[in-house]
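Preliminary data (for renewal application), magnesium ion complex.
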Amino acid sequence: MFEFIEQVRLAARALVEFSGHLFDPTIRLGVTGLSHAGKTVFITALVHGLLRGGRFPVFEALATGRVARAYLAPQPDDAVPRFDYENHVHALVTNRRWPESTRQISELRVIVEYQSQSGYQRDLTLDIVDYPGEWLLDLPLLTKSYETWAAESLRLSRQRSRAHLAADWHSHLATLNPEGAEDEQAALTATHLFTEYLKACRNEHYAMSLLPPGRFLMPGDLASTPALTFAPLELSNEGPAPTGSLSAMMRRRYEAYKELVVRPFFRDHFARLDRQIVLVDALAAINAGPDAVLDLESALAAVLDCFQTGRNTLLSSLLRPRIDRILLAATKADQLHHTSHDRLEAILKRLTERAAAKAELAGAHIDVAALAAVRATREATIQRGRDHLPSILGMPVAGEVATAETFDGETDAAMFPGDLPADPNDLFRNDENAFRGLARTAPQNVDFRFLRVRPPFLEVTEGGVPVLPHIRLDRALQFLIGDRLL
Ligand SMILES: Nc1nc2c(ncn2[C@@H]2O[C@H](COP(=O)(O)OP(=O)(O)OP(=O)(O)O)[C@@H](O)[C@H]2O)c(=O)[nH]1
Ligand SMILES: [Mg+2]
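Predicted structure:
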């Protein structure tokens, strides 16, 4: 019954929003990615480029001069924080520092005044919604019982790559009797140890991606509420949990998490998106090793499963999320020499091919791109003996370590991050020939090492406008909104 009422409510709102957009198009663009994927930098650079008339040759409407101007306007949703565009630009451009990490949903409205191809003046309203990718990984919980979720989480935590990180939690789990009386202290300890395990998996050296429930790693104002105080239990019998038992308590709280956290996110945000970009920090996974790469593959499969999309027809918008275009983007491509950009794209394709085929069947256009929202490096060829090494130049952020050196954040350096393999399958091998990452070996022995570098100085366009350099940001923009500016 609840499901049905929800559908009807979504349908009514879709109708109102649909009829309002007949003449001047509106796009709600979701920008998501797991923590540190590059969401804040992407939105800041995209909006900066739009407002400034950045160097976007592949973004047709701008390149051909049909965009008269773009400006920020008050956002439509009163309860959603505004994306802090001005401060993020200030950090990037004036201080050459990356913006602070953000843990919330936020929103920004940009109006693009353009001339349609038939010569009419129109406004495109672009609402950009920034939300954590971890919230997407929660959506599958809506259709999962506590028992199924607990069994899946336990299975995952016993995999070779994770088991040692889960050891403390597993020992505590072994002391719990699910059928015993409910016990707040036991629930608190289990939650604490389970959360510590999730945090350890996310650490730079392991860089795991598939870590639901999302709010355990970013609790916000729900921290220490019962809805966030539960953990998987080892359940032996199939029957219903006895009243007053520990497992009944856990199950109740798991259901509360779904009601208070997951369903409102689905209803208020996810179900209203038209377009989606999923930012993926594949290089962080490659830094960590094959386990992280395989884990990222599972996480992306779970993400793409959420997009049970259909084309944006009236009928499909009544019944399900209406996203009709999804761009999967590998971020921070400027940490590689351009000869590796296509390889990075091929790796992302390989990471998502099985899952993408499913979403494609359901009617959404999917594309894959390797990009850098802000290009923070330059390229050079360095001669070593007889060899000419393609390398990248940048200013590593203070504290980054390469072989013997710790950088101070003020010095330029030439870097050889390692060549990505021509065959993406080489990264998915997990046997004795697997590549070496930080999870299993010391930093000086890894096969790839991508260093964080400081943001660049602005470049000046042919028209004399100072803009941020980027890689393929214009291609992303063309795919995501280009067709609505015709
Ligand atoms: N070289 C380079 N680094 C980038 C780029 N985009 C992001 N980064 C790096 O990635 C880090 C994270 O970027 P954010 O945009 O803050 O990522 P986020 O997804 O918003 O992260 P959270 O808010 O923590 O979830 C930055 O601090 C930079 O170090 C890029 O285009 N090039
Ligand atoms: Mg952010």
